[in-house]
Amino acid sequence: MINRVANRLLSVGGWGATLLCLTILFLPLFVLVVFSFNRFPYGVFPLKGFTWQWYQKLLRNDNIVRAILNSIYISSFATIAALILGSLAAYASDRAIKMKVRFEAFLYVPMIAPGIILGISLAFLFHLLNLRLGLWSVVFGHVTFLAPFVFVLVSASLKRFDRRLELAGRDLGATGRQVFWLITLSVLKPTFLAAALFCWTLSFEEFIVTFFTIGSDSNLSMEVFSKLRVGVTPELNALGTLQILVAVIVGIWVSSKLEGVLD
Question: What residue segments make up the domains of the chain, in order of their start?
């Protein structure tokens, strides 16, 4: 009897804790979505009616549209570069190169270093080399902390990789290049997809490193930061809602792709 009551209390407590966590996570997003459709330009209750005007105003704002395009450019190029560099580093490390432990420790530094330290270091480096800051410098800065994440993810997959697949390919007459492209990369496709999505998301929302390396250009995080100085506007609520919608769509698409690859 006592055990039954204790188990029920634990079950109720577990569900209560889960509900509390979900509320903390999703309540701010729900409020943001609701106020993006509110006719009244201030975030206060009660609501004054439904409207699409903030979305229309957002899409007519050339500065925000340009900032979004710049963010997409930065995130895409930074993700591609990080995937290439991080994957090559993981592959080299997995092949038991000399000083493997020190090599891995060196790669972890940009990942665990505070963003403000990394941003200041990059800004000082560009100034020392007399290089003009711009979108390319932001891409370079993002790659420095994205590549280690790719390295960690790909390294973990390579450690679980069954080497007998490569040996079987070689026994069947495949060259080293064919084994790499047709076997190794095929097995690592889910990891590459997950790493790409993770890096793209980190790059898209990164602010601190961007702040120190973007110069006179602007991207979405910088544009939002400049607008937040005067408070949260309905346009920002609309922008956040669109980002949530895109995140949900991309999440569903990636999940379906991963299921297809794993099957």
Answer: 62-262
Q: What distance in Å separates the CA atoms of residue 82 and residue 92, rounded to the nearest whole number?
A: 15
Distance CA 191, CA 185 (A): 10
Which CATH superfamily, name and number, covers 62-262?
A: MetI-like (1.10.3720.10)
Return the CA Rg of the chain.
23
Distances (CA, A) of 82 to 35, 43, 153, 251: 37, 39, 12, 21
Say what the pTM is: 0.81
Write out pLDDT tens, residues 54-84. 888 888 888 888 988 999 999 999 999 999 9
How many residues in the chain? 263
Q: What is the C-alpha separation between 79 and 200, in angstroms, rounded?
A: 6
| Number of Cβ within a 10 Å radius of residue 87 | 23
Contact present, 137 and 126 (Cβ < 8 Å): yes
Give the residue-averaged pLDDT of 125-150. 90
Cα distance between residue 173 and residue 164, in whole Å: 14
φ/ψ region of 97 (left if φ > 0, alpha if ψ in -120 to 50, else beta) reads beta
Sign of the CA dihedral 46, 50, 53, 54? positive
Task: Give the helix ranges, DSSP H, for 161-233.
Answer: 163-171, 176-179, 185-187, 189-205, 208-213, 220-228
Alpha-carbon distance of 72 to 239, in angstroms, equals: 15
State the pLDDT at residue 183.
76
Specify burial of residue 119 (Cβ count, 10 A radius: 0-12, 13-18, 19+). Answer: buried
**What confidence category does residue 261 fall into, taking pLDDT thresholds of 50, 70 and 90?**
low
